[in-house]
Structures are given as C-alpha cells and as structure tokens.
Design a protein that fits this description.
The chain is mostly helical. The protein has helices at about 5-20, 30-50, 55-75, 80-100. Helix 1 runs antiparallel to helix 2 (about 30-50), helix 2 (about 30-50) runs antiparallel to helix 3 (about 55-75) and helix 3 (about 55-75) packs antiparallel against helix 4.
Length: about 110
C-alpha cells in the first residue's frame, strides 16, 4: 500500500474515533467543532506515514501529534484532552506504520 493510501486510512480512522464522543457532548457550534476536530486528527493521521524524519515511528507520531494539537489546545484552553489524545493517537499511528513498514511502498511523494 502506498504512503498516501496509508495516510488517508489512518487519518479517516483517527478523525472518526475523535469525533464520535463529541456527538454526545453539549458543544456550542457543534458543526464547526466537529469539522475542526476531524480535520486536525485527519491531518495527524495523514502526515505521520508521509513524513520522513530521522526518528523512530513512535517519536515521529508524538512530534506530529503534539505540533498539530497544540494550536487547538491554546485556542480552546483545554490542554489535557486535546494534547493527550493527539499525542497518544500520534504515537499509536507511528508505531503501527513503523511496524507495518514492509507493506508501505517507499515511493517518491
């Protein structure tokens, strides 16, 4: 499977996992919050397999999860859940992508 397909699948899965609990919360501007959260988590899942850095997979996931979650955490003032889920999700995706490296084609992007 190509890195792009892997990133799309990981991004869709992470985005959906993140927004499902939000349907049961009382959130002002629900549609904007759902769209913003989904796009952020999709971006994390998409970028981890498509970013080449000299770090282990889990560290790449941690870094991307932290960097992309930090602006949302600062804007909302809700640091724990946003950063925690972004970092944990990033680490998990990084570990899975690194573990399954044999099935990702190293094609030029």
């Amino acid at each position: 499977m190509s890195r792009i397909k892997t990133g799309v699948i990981a991004g869709l899965a992470f985005g959906i996992i993140d927004i499902v609990p939000m349907f049961f919360m009382n959130i002002p501007d629900r549609h904007l919050a759902l769209a913003g959260a989904f796009i952020n988590r999709f971006s994390i899942g998409f970028l981890i397999p498509n970013t080449i850095v000299p770090l282990p997979g889990w560290a790449t996931g941690l870094l991307i999860g932290l960097l992309l979650s930090l602006p949302d955490a600062i804007i909302t003032g809700i640091y724990g859940p946003i950063l925690g889920f972004g970092i944990i999700g990033g680490i998990v995706i990084g570990l899975l992508v690194n573990r399954k490296k044999y099935w990702i084609k190293d094609t030029h992007l």
